[in-house]
UniProtKB/TrEMBL annotation:
It catalyses: succinate semialdehyde + NADP(+) + H2O = succinate + NADPH + 2 H(+); succinate semialdehyde + NAD(+) + H2O = succinate + NADH + 2 H(+). Residues 68-526 form the Aldehyde dehydrogenase domain. GO terms for biological process: gamma-aminobutyric acid catabolic process. SUPFAM superfamilies: ALDH-like. Keywords: Oxidoreductase. InterPro entries: Ald_DH/histidinol_DH (IPR016161), Ald_DH_C (IPR016163), Ald_DH_CS_GLU (IPR029510), Ald_DH_N (IPR016162), Aldehyde_DH_dom (IPR015590), Aldehyde_DH_Superfamily (IPR050740), Succ_semiAld_DH (IPR010102). This is Succinate-semialdehyde dehydrogenase. PANTHER family: SUCCINATE-SEMIALDEHYDE DEHYDROGENASE, MITOCHONDRIAL. It comes from Coprinellus micaceus (Glistening ink-cap mushroom). GO terms for cellular component: cytoplasm. GO terms for molecular function: succinate-semialdehyde dehydrogenase (NAD+) activity; succinate-semialdehyde dehydrogenase (NADP+) activity. Its EC number is 1.2.1.16.
Amino acid sequence: MRSLPTLLRTSFGASRPGARSYKAFRAPPIFTSVSTNSQNRMASSQASVFGLQDPSLIKFQGFIDGKWVDAKSGEKIVVTNPATDEELGTIPEMGVDETKEAIEAAKNAFPAWSRTTAKHRHDLLVKFFQLMQQHHEDLSRLITLENGKALADAKGENAYSASFFEWFAGEAVRIYGEQIPSAFPGTRNIVIKQPIGVVAILTPWNFPSAMITRKLGAALAAGCTAVIKPPPEAPFSALALAELSIRAGIPPGVINMVTTQKHVVDVGRELCESHIVRKVTFTGSTPVAKTLYKMAASTLKKISLEAGGNAPFIVFDDANIDEAVDAAVVCKFRGSGQTCVCANRIYVQSGVYAEFTSRLAERVAAFKLGNGLEEGVTHGPLIHRRALEKVERHVNDAVEKGAQVLVGGKAIPNSSFFIPTVLSDVPRDALINTEETFGPLAAITKFETEDEVIRLANDTDVGLAGYFFSRDVGRAWRVAEKLEVGMVGANTGFISQASIPFGGIKESGLGREGGHGISEYMNEKLITFGGLGW
Ligand code: SIN
């Protein structure tokens, strides 16, 4: 397995020898009432369409208390490949009852799990990490099949995803307490850290694997147990992780997964309002984050929210243009623009505007759009038609207001593919400058001065990531400090790694993940000892 930065940087434009060619397929019909044997046969025939080396990584059931389970109603959700619109398989349409069972299982598993030694949890997380490396090809292929991102990009995600288990294995054995000098004679203050309890993890489809491990790694390392609600659009990576957790030796009930689509609001409410669940952690949109925040308020739960961004990407006249163009390609078009930290608004100073714009357009025109499993494909589809419609709306709005289409500008009819697009002369009042596009659209706006661009960059309710390019050290400090975001890329368009405090300010969310994020899964407890007798 190549290193994470190499995988991510080569995701764009590199040909990938060894990538398998894609074969069209259709899953067999689904019956709801069948015997276990025929269910197993059916599952294995469905699994075969994924073309994995280890088909037993494919699961079509939820995971509660160490068992694979169907929805009580027998209902199923059909999951499709966004590149082909073909059915990949089905997962159970679970609801509140199954969620309660999962919470109960996590509650029952908590006492024993929370008392394991940090070294034991470290060892299991290392094993989990190694299993993800061992199954790197299969897990990456799975990400491409369900999310659509190009295989090299999916390989980057799997490496990134596994790295959270490695990172938090290290954090597990460094959960230190504190001794605080006491104000009173004969007493001592000690602070210990204890796992918070049952954690609810709600994750999005844009990183079907990594957004789980970033949260689950911290939860497991801290000694918490978890109920996970994976995205219904891309649930198979999550279920494969559940399978690997068994192989890693994580005990039943420590990790539970409830799959749902139709009942998502009720399941979310149950997780947020349960008196057993002590923490909710979510990655997704700002409106959903606000809803969960309100729901979790009823039990005053600890909550981490990684919500939407609207990242500015600023190129000053004194930038290294080669580096800025390379960075824009990765930062804007990674996952076809479907990451919360993707550049959304590209501001370029007038002195380098023409050069940057034409060079970026040239690079984007060379992308190869298609099924991410096919040789040479650099960019895949959007997750579904709704996502595509938003990109279309942003392009049309900008063009109506005077923007020029340099590359792309339209969708491929009857598909979820939007041609990677570069727009120049995008007016400041264009929708794209106020809303996150979440698609492959580079919208470039010209600016004149540093003060002006800082004002533009900060003129938004959200603040997740921001990027700028300048070789002036004084300016670099000024801009880095003035950008109202949680994470700044200074002369780089790529910041994501397990060791950093990932998170935003303003309406981009609460809390930090990765880095020292294990603290979000622990309570500090003060113990004041008296009676020392002196
Ligand atoms: C996200 O899009 O929410 C996460 C992006 C990342 O971790 O790089």
